[in-house]
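Justification of computing resources. Each target in the renewal requires a structure prediction run like the one illustrated here; the chain below, 154 residues long, is used simply to show the kind of job we budget for.
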Amino acid sequence: MQIDTLRFGVTEIDEERIIQFTAGIPPFAEVRRFAVVAREEELPFQWLQAVDDPALAFVVVDPRIFFPAYAPQIAPADREELGLDPEEAVQVLVLLVLGRTPRSITANLLAPVVISPRTRTAKQVVLEGGLDRVRVPLSIPQAAEAVPAAEAAG
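Resulting structure tokens:
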């Protein structure tokens, strides 16, 4: 299927890669369908692109790349909402906040996006923990070289 995006123009997306959020990402509650778009030149960074809103996209990353010990415990209610079996594996992405320079990139470790690969449903869950986990700096130097331009962030 083709989707129109502000950043990449018309982009071909395999319908199998479209995910449906059970509730939108605050403050975009009405937008529910997204696709994870990976562009080779920007890896490990990816885009969580809204299917029905060309201008809405978030920069995301697999948190284990920068925070190997990060292992969020997904609450049973969230697992149920996503249609997950008790021990079913999930895909976890974290939203990034791009600052004025690549070295000021932060990750939201308090509210990761959890995706069920089987049902293709997703939810941004809020974990237990303090607000100090909302803007955690990425500390690996390579991050500064690969990150998408800050002005392109949604």
